[in-house]
Design brief:
It comes from Phycisphaera mikurensis (strain NBRC 102666 / KCTC 22515 / FYK2301M01). It holds the Pfam family Glycos_transf_2. This is Glycosyltransferase 2-like domain-containing protein. By secondary structure, the protein is α/β, with parallel strands linked by helices. The protein has two domains: 201 residues, Spore Coat Polysaccharide Biosynthesis Protein SpsA, Chain A (Alpha-Beta Complex); 107 residues, no CATH class. The protein has twelve helices and ten strands. The strands form two sheets. It has a seven-stranded mixed beta sheet, sandwiched between helices. A three-stranded mixed beta sheet has the order 5-10-7. Helix 2 links the parallel strand 2 and strand 3. Helix 9 crosses helix 10 and helix 9 crosses helix 12.
């Protein structure tokens, strides 16, 4: 697998024979250095994108000006905007509404692109039928802004499906589905990404909006999925156990809201009706019964996750066993989130 460059930015020469008809859309939390590494990788593309639109969630005007000064000479069509703090989903929607090119590529700000990313996406997009295109994503916990020694949790993020699923194996087996369409590296015709309202707008929620859009386009509109092997990114995201737990609970709360908007999608994704009275009652009982066990499980997982990365040798099956140790806690947290989502909905209804 390739690795993103960490040295000086080498700006690739443009390819005038192929004017890019694609806009890159990047919602950004503007973490220190993260967005800059993403923009540097776009500056090094073999085929330049037609435009790059960045939305700074809660950003300030001075920061917008600084990014334009630094990167406009190297990133064609750079458009950086300060947006009200509302989360990545509204930021992406605001950017997507302003796209004028035939195709759009959605990226996260914490990815670094392979030099052939734009070219590979366009090769697949221009092949004929309406398609959604995605490509390889290597997970990395090696955040330059976080110099702490690597831990077993870092290895779990990088080497297992604890947090992020690797679509490469599914693509190689011809089993690519909407479940592998993550918004951190996803392209389509701009019109498709806007169809039926585009990505779900769920203020304050996190997750599922990319998979839901892919489900809707493939199931309702017959859009095909395509894999672009040259459209790779490195996704750098270092998580603590606390962040991992908060993330899982947030996903549970989001699932409740998404199921209200598209019950067919969520029933297929989960294999159950998460909004049914029976399932909600089951979750309440499971959370009550499992509270003590979940607390012990979390304490043990925190101790194991904090151990040095070299504690488990490379290739050892023990790393997978440690991943399995997380599953009971994951279920508990997700169910807690689902219950919270139901209670919040009830509160909004008065």
């Amino acid at each position: 697998m390739y690795r993103a460059a960490r040295g000086p930015v080498r700006h690739a020469p443009p390819m005038p024979e192929r004017e890019a008809s694609l806009t890159v859309v990047i919602p950004s939390a503007d973490r220190p250095g993260t967005l800059e590494r993403c923009l540097a990788s776009l500056a090094a593309q073999r085929l330049r994108p037609g435009a790059v639109k960045v939305g700074l969630d809660g950003g300030a005007g001075a920061r917008v000006e600084a990014l334009h000064r630094r990167w406009s000479p190297h990133v064609p069509g750079l458009d950086v905007r300060a947006l009200p703090r509302a989360g990545s989903q509204p930021a992406r929607a605001a950017l997507l509404a302003s796209v004028q090119t035939p195709y759009t590529l959605c990226l996260n700000d914490d990815v670094e692109a392979q030099p052939t990313l734009v070219e590979a996406h366009l090769d697949r997009l221009g092949a004929g039928d309406p398609v959604l295109v995605t490509g390889p994503c290597r997970q990395s916990a090696a955040d330059p802004a976080d110099p702490r020694p690597a831990t077993l949790l870092d290895r779990l993020v990088e080497e297992t499906d604890l947090v992020f699923f690797d679509a490469s194996a599914a693509a190689a087996a011809g089993e690519l589905t909407y479940r592998h369409c993550y918004g951190l590296n996803l392209s389509a015709a701009t019109e498709l990404l806007r169809r039926d309202g585009g990505f779900l707008d769920l203020p304050g929620r996190y997750g599922y909006e990319d998979l839901e859009l892919a489900w809707r386009l493939t199931r309702r509109h017959g859009v095909a999925l395509r894999w672009a092997a040259g459209a790779g990114v490195v996704h750098t995201h270092r998580l603590s156990v606390e962040q991992l737990c908060v993330r899982e609970e947030r996903l549970g709360a989001t699932a409740w809201d998404v199921a209200a908007r598209n019950g067919g999608f969520m029933r297929e994704l989960l294999g159950l009706d998460c909004r049914s009275a029976d399932h909600l009652s089951f979750c309440r009982r499971a959370v009550d019964r499992g509270a003590a066990d979940a607390a012990r499980c979390r304490a043990s997982f925190e101790r194991l996750a904090a151990m040095p990365a070299e504690t488990i040798p490379p290739g050892s099956p023990l790393l997978i066993e440690l991943q399995h140790f997380w599953i009971p806690l994951k279920r508990q947290l997700w169910r807690q989130g689902l219950i919270l989502g139901a209670e919040q909905e009830k509160g909004r209804a008065g």
